[in-house]
Amino acid sequence: MNLRILPPPGAPRRLAAAQLSNSVGDGAYYVCSALYFTRVVGLSPAQIGLGLTVAWAVGSVAGVPLGALADRRGPRGTSVLLALATAAAVASFLVIRSFWPFLLAACLYATAQCGLAAARQALLAGLVEPRERTGVLAHLQSMLNAGLALGASIGGLALSADSAGAYRAVFAMDAVSFLVCAAVLLRLPAVAPVERRAAGEPRLAVLRDRPYALVTALNAVLLLRMPLLSLAIPLWIVERTHAPGWLVSALFVLNTVGVMLFQVRTARPVTDLRTARAAVWSSGLVMAASCVVFALSALPAAAWAAGAALVVGAVLQLFAEMRQSAGSWQISFSLAPPEKIGQYQGFFGTGVPVARTLGPLLLTSLLLLWGIPGWLLLGGVLLVASWAMGPAVRRAERAAAQRPEPEPEPAAAAAAGEPAAAPDAAGTPEGTPAGTAVPTVRAGR
To answer: What InterPro entries does this protein's entry cite (predicted)?
Structure first.
């Protein structure tokens, strides 16, 4: 493994270890889940699609309150509990044999995953300085891709065996990987919960933050690129071009390895809102160019010419993806109130389940039915969304500057000698300023 993908020692590296542990299990799960649910559980493709659509819709709604829970009860303890809930959900897939239990387990899985993403972002915000967060997230993204690639290789072995036992072993491994993730997260320093919300303040303030909601909506549009590589481009290659079929896996490997090796370097210049806006705008320009090149691959030409166009388009898409990711990370943190990082990250993160739910239908309809004009329309939509992000972020920045400062609660001043507050979900004392890392003491250490 290239050591440049590793973050600095300390909390960032442990966060990376947690990311790597569960991404290996997820990589194997993603490769094998469809066949397991059809051949072992006995579900139809329509039932699987319906169940996962409902599950991710529920998860996207649950992310905000679970993020708020991380703010109030402490992000480390909340992250640990949600990692354990994910492990339980994956393990439950091993015993279900009908649709309704599958739907319940899928809803638990998606809810825990969305909440875990928000809680981990809040934990990272409490452990990493603001100017370093985008860089650390870039390292985590690199580790994520490395884990997914390794997990997909393991899943490939299960596919080659094509037996119920092999598929169950993959699900068991995924469940164990989240147990490992929970154990690693528990070894991180605790981050103190935030003060109580002010009188009259809504419980989920992010739902009333219209400028932030606009930024989130634009980011969701930009995330429509997510199903491109996994679904739309493979179908495009097979049905609309003369390129060889093996190019599907080659482009996937290109993207996975590219992000693993270059995401950190690409994110390094992004340190504030100005550079984040520039990163998102440049990603839109490059993504639009990528769409044009992908469209050209369908023109009558030799197989090598179509293949070359697809490779060039994939390289452009890779660069656009890394720039957009870096910019969106910085934007999502910089515009969120420090005392509400969890719920704001939970809201911003709804773009991922939305893209997973709506993206496949939209992209396959647009690209496979419309062909070249569909690619040009998609590129135009992504270009406009990336341009609109600039004024939307500036508006949200002005709104953030006008927010009243949270009033500290009288009992929170430890220096005044008041009694300590209740522990967080992982047993960490409160009463510490929000965002402060509190090392924990364990027996035997």
So the answer is: MFS, MFS_trans_sf, MFS_Transporters
- Pairwise CA distance, residues 116 & 88, whole Å: 14
The string of pLDDT tens digits covering residues 45-96 is 889 988 988 999 999 899 999 999 999 999 999 999 999 999 999 999 999 9
Alpha-carbon span 226 to 435, nearest angstrom? 32
Residue 86 in contact with residue 109, Cβ under 8 Å?
yes
Q: Write the CB contacts of 159 (distance below 8 Å, at least 6 apart in sequence).
A: 31, 32, 35, 166
Structural domains of the chain in order of their starting residue, each with its CATH number: 6-195 (1.20.1250.20), 203-402 (1.20.1250.20)
Q: How far is CA 57 from the centre of its chain?
A: 15
Classify the C-alpha dihedral 67-72-74-78 as positive or negative.
negative
Q: From 114, 82, 96, 80, select the one nearest 33 (Cα to Cα).
A: 96
Please tell me the predicted confidence (pLDDT) of residue 443.
35
Q: What is the dihedral of CA 270, 273, 277, 278, to 10 degrees?
A: -50
User: Measuring CA to CA, which residue among 69, 158, 68 is closest to residue 343?
Assistant: 68
Instruction: Give the number of residues written for the chain.
Output: 445
Nearest alpha-carbon partner for 331 in 381, 285, 280, 286? 280
Given a cut of 60, whether residue 441 has pLDDT beyond it is no
